[in-house]
Design brief:
8 helices, 166 residues, single chain
Amino acid sequence: MKYILLLSISMYAFAQDISTKTADNWAILPLKCIEQQYPNKLGQVLTSHDDLDLPQNLNPAFYGCFDWHSAVHGHWSLVYLLSNYTNLTNRNLIIKQLEKQLTKENIAQEVVYFSKKENYSFERTYGWNWLLQLQLELEQSKDSYALEFQFHLIIFLYHQLSFHRL
C-alpha cells in the first residue's frame, strides 16, 4: 500500500503542464508516420501466400508508425493532444487525418484481420491496451469529432474482447 501511495504522490509531484508549442511538437511524429507504410514490422502469422499484403491493406486504420501498436499509440496521442490542447496549430489537420484513418470501413477491415484464428491474439496485450486507451480518450473527449470514432472502435473492441476469445 505504501508503494501505491508513494507512486501516486510521485506522479502528482512530477506531473507537468506542457505548453501548446510543445504539444504541437509532440503531434509532429504521429502526423508524419500515421500513413507511412515502410519500414513496417507486421508480426503476423502466415498460413499461405494469400496472407501477404501491403500494411495499408491488412490494417487500414493502424498501419503506419512501424508497427500496429505504435500506430494505435500515435492515434491515441493525437486524440489526447486534441482533448487537452484546444489551440493546437495543426488541430484541423489532425482531425482530418483521424477522419481518414478511423472510418467505419477501415475498422471493419481491422476486424476481418483479427477474425482469422491465427490473429486472435495479435498485439495482445500491449497493442490492445493502446486500443483501449484510444477508446477511453475518445469517450472522455468533449469534441464532436470523437463521437463517430467511438462507435467505430467499439465494434472492434467488442470483437477483440469477446469472452470466447480471451
